[in-house]
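Quick one: Dihydroorotate dehydrogenase B (NAD(+)), catalytic subunit from Halanaerobium polyolivorans, structure tokens please.
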Amino acid sequence: MADLSVKLFDFILKHPVMPAAGPPIKDAEAAAAAKKGGTAAVVTKTISTKAAEVPRPNMAQLKSGFINTELWSEMGPDKWLNDEYPAIKELGLAVIVGLGYNAEEISELAKKVEPFADALELSTHYLGSDPSPVVESVKAAKKAVDLPVLVKLSPQIEIAKFAKAAQDAGADGLVLINSFGPTLDIDIESGRPLMGSENGYGWLSGEAIFPLALRAVFEAVKAVEIPVIAVGGISTGEDAVKMIMAGAEAVQVCTTAILNGPTVYSKIAQEIDSYLVKHNYNSLNEIRGIAQSKMPTKANYQTKAPKIIAENCTGCRLCIISCVYDANYLDEDKKIVIDEDKCAACGLCVTRCNFAALEFRWD
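--- reply ---
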């Protein structure tokens, strides 16, 4: 077993997997279920100075991911302060309290939640090109409490610019990314927009936004010196490993916890461990940020056909069906063969192979 522990500010996590601020930790009962499911920390659903009036329907699974019009907590701050936070604190896990959405609201709430929090995570909603709301929110929180303050950023911004602004304002860490949107889906039976919001729009999350989140995390890590926590489409240990390779300290999961229940936290942690052991790594520190030094500085135009591991090939033909260059075929033993004169080294067949019969040839 590898060392999965993470030192985040003044607390140690047994592994890097935790919930994201949202429905998975909608109250203390959900937090207790997350602990039982193996989470390393608790990140509470964001609260504001009043309870949210959430439109309905507000969540749906799509072929491409997940769409939602979820807002902040449907419970007001008094309910959280009197009942939920005290019970969550008793669980014995590090608690990151979600707060939003502007400097005034955060200033009012931060001191009240301080007794129950090990850190704060600020949500500043969806921003344009001006980082001022982030800066003001961070300063308000830091002025109010002596706690680590993280700020969550949306993907529709200039990542490096906002990350640096948050760091300069005093943020102790970043969380990237929030869901992406607005987006739209339509109920095919009625022809109505699927979400119950005023305009029918929602926000995309889940597996569809993982590459977007990975790029944002990579850019943020490159831009700042404070810890970055990754969130956005993470549903497997492999996803988490990629985020850590991009430089993330830890990962948060939301959509997969909604769809599959709280056992996903231990499942993802176990899959991270399996990866590290299989590849002879002893700890997360050995892979954290390694992608930063491997990023190409120019496009690669070399043509190299994938390497074939014939003993792994099952003859499923998936790579043949999807080869638009007609370069792949099976030999008489039903094993994959690649015509290197036809192969354009596009890489699709490697990513589609389910049996590790093809590998990239890197320089």
